[in-house]
């Protein structure tokens, strides 16, 4: 049995989830996008997590050992006038550096994929920073393929 459990988040995970989100923001704002507010999780994270836990169209997973060592946030959107199929977006994912390359990210993506399929999604979507090679490698290995490119112009 795997030492790290992948499971749906619970209210008692709130502190660990905020810390996991803060670590993600610190990594991204520190190395990938200086315009990202690294303090956002500390200020708004608890409400965000609480809202996600109540949202039937959101999935919040934790990787637990038993402390939270990672998280995944995903959402589902049903077919609409604009989109002919149900879609799911992997909004946020983080695994503590000490726990990377152990298959935890893959297991979380697999659990998210199964949840999305059970909701009727036929497409998954994720964005990643172009310089985040480890995330890009993970997503490619999980079957994601490039579809669009986001370009920024700062001034």
Report on this model:
The protein is of the alpha+beta class and 155 residues long. The chain has a single domain (5-141), classed as Aminopeptidase. Helices cover 37% and strands 24% of the residues. It has four helices and five strands. The protein has helices at 14-31, 40-54, 104-119, 133-141; strands spanning 5-8, 58-64, 68-77, 86-95, 121-126. The protein has a five-stranded mixed sheet with strand order 1-2-3-4-5, sandwiched between helices. A hairpin with a 3-residue loop joins strand 2 and strand 3 (68-77). Helix 1 packs across helix 2. The chain is globular and about 40 Å long. The termini are far apart.
Biggest sheet strand line-up: 1-2-3-4-5
SS element count, helices: 4
**DSSP strand content:** 15-25%
| Share of helix, binned | 25-40%
Structural key phrases:
155 residues, alpha+beta, Aminopeptidase, five-stranded mixed beta sheet, 4 helices
Give a brief rundown of this model.
With 155 residues, the chain is an alpha+beta fold. It has helices at 14-31, 40-54, 104-119, 133-141; strands spanning 5-8, 58-64, 68-77, 86-95, 121-126. It has a 5-stranded mixed beta sheet, with helices on both faces.
Q: What secondary-structure arrangement, pairings included, does this model have?
A:
Elements: E1 5-8, H1 14-31, H2 40-54, E2 58-64, E3 68-77, E4 86-95, H3 104-119, E5 121-126, H4 133-141
Parallel strand pairs: 4-5
Antiparallel strand pairs: 1-2, 2-3, 3-4
Helix pairs in contact: 1-2
